[in-house]
Amino acid sequence: MTTQQPAVLKNLDEVRAMIRRHKLNDYIFSIIGLIALMVGLLTLLTLFLDLVIDGYTRFNYEFLTNFPSRRAGSAGLLTAWVGSLLVMTVTFVTAVPLGVAAGVYLEEYAPKNWFTDLIEINVTNLAGVPSIIYGLLALGLFVYILDLGQSILTAGLTLALLILPVVIVSTRESIRAIPVSIREGAYAVGATKWQVVSDHILHYSFGGILTGIIIGMARALGETAPVITIGALTFIAFLPPAPITAEPPFLNFEWLEAGFTVLPIQMFNWLSRPDHAFHVNAAATGAIIIMVTLLMNGTAIWLRYRIRKNIKW
Amino acid sequence: MSMATEVLNTPLELRISDRLAKNFRRHFKERVIEFILMLAALSAVATTVGIVAILLYESAGFFAHVSIVDFLTDTQWTPLFEDAHYGILPLVMGTLVTSGIALMVAIPLGTIAAIYLSEFASHRVREICKPILELLVGVPTVVFGYFALLFVTPLLQIIFPELPGFNMLGPGIVMGIMIIPYISSMAEDAMRAVPMSMREGSYAMGATRFQTAVRVVAPAATSGIIAAYILGISRAVGETMVVAIAAGQQPTMTINPMEGAATITAYIVQVAMGDLPHGSIGYQSIFAAGLVLAFMTLFFNLLGHLARKKYREAY
Questions:
Q1: What is the DSSP string of B56-72?
Q2: Mean pLDDT throughout A185-202?
């Protein structure tokens, strides 16, 4: 004997089936989402392994101490890493004081008016300008109008302008996180604005600013297009004059005017040659660049994570 | 004699004038510092002015030789040849095709990743995945160029045997992967800004996570998500090294991604690599190309800015 199932129960089965179906959809989507996330991670991993596998034969001491050469096997990175180091020095010395000062001004000093708005809109927009446009600015302004030539100074200043928005934004964000009570306490005991800023605000925001500086410098190290645009030499077989000399005044600034190459340009140069032997050099260079930038960015991310965890106002 | 008694022994008027003098010095120093800090902040404005001025100034020299009509309508770009043509269209086309491919990769993956991070991922997964995506942003583009030329293109050649070594497909895909983090993090921010009460309302009606994410959260965050896409476009349009390395540097008027072509950025790199004399037409042409690029990115940035403003106002 078959009993007729009540309509409600039949409906209940349908409802249950529907719930199962929808739960399955949830499950399927979370897997798809995870895969979409993994694409980035896997690419990063593949990229790094690809570079290491292609270039590991060149991981030796000579690669770092040899000058570039026509023969791929004996060509080295000496001029490139020295150039990168010197250019980054100029960038650091320019971008850090300028960016931190601008960030402090916008957060602590600037009155709320159209002028401040103008500066803020500019900072936001500069962050979205393609890097090669900075190269064109540098080519027209630094190289020809200011006549600085295709020098380390020009490249350093260009990259400084490029990372300025990064430094400004991180300075502002970490200053904004400081509670007003800190400032009020300092003002209450008679501190001037600058005393508040230099003794308290900069002190507490140091970690956050450092994070921004590290990320900016990592970007400057890997940036290629603007440095090519100002006309960095791709083949130089000499080092710039040493910044430190044996005789007084011990410091020598001739290196600022010297021609140079940097790591990413050296890589680009080797990469654009048809000979495969040079591609091996390019891979080894890429592996070095990526290791250094990942290390810098990793440090910055870790630093930010620690700051967020440790500071409880 | 201690300091306190010294102060007490000096006449009252003197003590006051002393303090006033000190205050004046303090005040003056404060004003000087404020002025210096303001100058630093003005460097941002100066940079923008510098960019606009240089691009316009050098382009003016270019447009003294080349009519704007030719520049915008000619379909050949051969400024360095004997028979010189100055039509920007092939470069714009190359830029749009590579950016288009990049977006076809980045928009779906970036959106899915954003929905997953915002609505599905546990706290731990998010803590692990977000830093990794940030690391991806930090990878220098020249390295991605290597990857596109010597890894992705050979891989694609297995599927499409007739694919040339320089093509727009490989670098486009790599560029797409490169801009996933930009899109996903901005879209995620937009979706997390949607108030919890809307999700709770949806769950209370018996909706699943997926239904809530797709039918409630995503529509509510539309303008923010669109802003993320537009910023992604702007990144792709301005990207240089990947296309300069892997797309070939031959200006070709084509929409076929299997062919090689030059983008605006790749052309600027190509000219800058050779040593062109200052003031020559070739030298000026890169500024004209740069001007077009600047207009394109400015347009997208403004559009993105407007869209973002809209979503900030929504709740």
A1: HHHHHHHHHHS-HHHHH
A2: 89
Q: Which residue of A has its CA nearest to B129?
A: A37
Q: Does domain B89-314 have CATH number 1.10.3720.10?
A: yes
Give the count of Cβ contacts less than 8 A between chain A and B.
Answer: 265
Domain-wise residue ranges, chain A: 1-57, 59-310
pLDDT at A313: 62
Distance, CA of B81 to chain centre: 32
Partner residue opposite B113 with nearest CB, options A36, A268, A290: A36
Contact B143 A215 (CB under 8 A): no
Q: Which CATH number fits domain A59-310: 3.40.50.300, 1.10.3720.10, 1.25.40.530, 1.25.40.10?
A: 1.10.3720.10
Distance, CA of A107 to CA of A176 (rounded, Å): 7
B126 touches chain A (CB under 8 A): no
For tokens 């360095």, the residue is B80
Q: What is the pTM of this model?
A: 0.86
Is B268 in contact with A272 (Cβ distance < 8 A)? no
Residues A143, A75: contact at Cβ < 8 Å? no
Residue A2 has pLDDT above 80, yes or no: no
pLDDT digit string (tens) for chain B, length 315 residues: 455 666 666 666 666 666 666 677 778 888 899 999 999 999 888 999 999 999 999 898 888 888 888 888 877 887 777 777 888 888 898 899 999 999 999 999 999 999 999 988 888 888 888 888 888 888 899 999 989 888 888 888 888 888 888 888 999 999 999 999 999 988 998 898 889 999 999 999 988 889 999 899 988 888 889 989 988 998 899 888 888 888 887 787 777 788 888 888 988 888 888 777 777 888 888 899 999 999 998 888 888 878 777 765 555
Binary contact (B120, A37; C-beta < 8 A):
no
Angstrom distance (rounded) from CA A49 to CA A26: 34
In angstroms, the CA A64 to CA A81 distance is 8
Sign of CA dihedral B254, B257, B262, B263: positive
Question: Which residue of chain A is at minimal alpha-carbon distance from B149?
Answer: A271
Kindly state whether A107 is in contact with chain B, defined as any CB-CB distance less than 8 angstroms.
Answer: no
Sign, CA dihedral B66-B272-A52-B137, equals negative
Give how far Cα B61 sits from Cα of A150, B66, B131, B277, B279, Å. 22, 9, 46, 14, 8
Q: Check: CB of residue B98 under 8 Å from CB of residue A19.
A: no
Q: What is the CA radius of gyration of chain B?
A: 28
Return the residue of B nearest to A125 by Cα: B301
